Amino acid sequence: MTIDVDxxxxxxxxxxxxxxxxxxxxxxxxxxxxxxxxYLTQDDGRTPLLQGAGDPxxxxxxxxxxxxxxxxxxxxxxxxxxxxxxxxxxxxxxAAARAGAQVGDFVAVYxxxxxxxxxxxxxxxxxxxxxxxxxxxxxxxxxPFTTGKTGEVERKEIIVRYFPGSNPExxxxxxxxxxxxxxASLGLSxxxxxxxxxx
Length: 199
Fold this sequence. Notes:
The protein has 199 residues and is α/β, with parallel strands linked by helices. The protein contains three helices and six strands. The chain has helices at residues 94-98, 135-140, 176-185; strands at 2-4, 89-91, 106-111, 117-124, 132-134, 158-163. The strands form two sheets. A four-stranded mixed β-sheet has the order 2-4-3-6. The chain starts with a strand and ends in a 14-residue tail after the last helix.
């Protein structure tokens, strides 16, 4: 699983700014010459829109996620998008989409290495494998990553359980605590204990 920092207000910014990720990762296929997909731009598709004085990280770019707060009509408000440093989310892959999962659905995620499990949400798109999760998610699972520049989980040891159709109202979450409470209230399980045979 690779690290996704999209939606974090300090994910990307002008040269000289301390950012959570490399500029190339905001471009399709990680190529600087390709279209920008990680943050908002002017109509020319190349000039970044900058956060203002009242935003979380003035002067940084406005990084976006596929799942956003429908109640917030301001596309240029960084708070409209999931903050990858605060919310556990995964990227919607093709296999999960074919099985009925959609952006906004709840998930439970488990690490076979750390034996930790957490609730999250399908928060972004763009990686057809789906093997990508927010920085907050990987930290919650016990991995020592601090930015999108600090590596990835190289072994196949993370399991994602999708709950298709579990968020039909497109509820948005500002905090992980609220997300956890909503998942628990639906009776969703993050228990990955193997079921004994015959049970």
